[in-house]
């Protein structure tokens, strides 16, 4: 019997769903834009607070409506970041390191903006939006399975992760637009020469990446006991670790990374706590060790090597 059973197993599946929802959009955006985007945390946090404001200000208890609104907000933020910050910097010849630093600036700016919005909402309603409790939705059931009660977040998270994976697979493999997106990811110069509108593909990529991550944020409000404007910041290490396992390019390996990190953080820490007395609070330590191990063993971008690494390897072999 596994330590902490059955809750360690339930949490393993629950966090797998969330890491898929948060990390696959990050991998998708990097493989098409090459931007290591720290503002990805903002997509999640603004998805969270779209649901919070809808609930606290308008009394919304529909998770479906919250997810749709979150997709629009997160996708719009991602697109605006690209059009007003990343693309102008690229046109001026800025390096990817400089663009990464710009994304850090956006990350901090959006955090303060969200705190201001929460303060303004508090001023007019006297509700505490800085620390908001878990939302109970009316359109998502709790399910009884094998004597276990699966909460709303489990049902919604599992369904959303399944929809994201299936829709991305069908889009990338079966549609002309999706194949164009893959072509831009593999070789943007050759794709442009072939007549593929790279700017349109990149815009669409940011819209999907920001929107999908924000949907995960909206579902998070049905799981977490309390959310704050920086709730997503506490998860960004795990999100990047999962994407690094996929080399920031492989969606399949990113999904496997979500399973691996969720297993280490739930079943792994439960086993260490049971047999060796390791505190549960050491969960981030395990994630950090995993991240360092991956980066050292598979430089420069994780287990899939990353596009630059793959191209460089081919060049070295050709020479």
Automatic annotation (TrEMBL):
Q: Which family does it belong to?
A: Belongs to the binding-protein-dependent transport system permease family. LivHM subfamily.
This protein's GO CC annotations: plasma membrane
* Domain of life from the UniProt record: Archaea
**Native species:** Thermofilum pendens (strain DSM 2475 / Hrk 5)
- Please give one Gene Ontology molecular function term for this protein: transmembrane transporter activity
Membrane topology according to the record: Multi-pass membrane protein
Task: Kindly list the residue ranges recorded as spanning the membrane.
Answer: 12-28, 35-57, 63-86, 98-118, 154-172, 204-223, 235-252, 259-278, 284-307
Keywords (alphabetical) are: Amino-acid transport, Cell membrane, Membrane, Transmembrane, Transmembrane helix, Transport
Q: What is this protein called?
A: Inner-membrane translocator
What Pfam families does the annotation carry? BPD_transp_2 (PF02653)
- Tell me which PANTHER family the record gives: BRANCHED-CHAIN AMINO ACID TRANSPORT PERMEASE PROTEIN LIVH-RELATED, BRANCHED-CHAIN AMINO ACID TRANSPORT SYSTEM PERMEASE PROTEIN LIVH
Q: Where in the cell is it found?
A: Cell membrane
InterPro entries xrefs: ABC_transp_permease, BCAA_transport_permease
- Provide the GO biological process annotations: amino acid transport
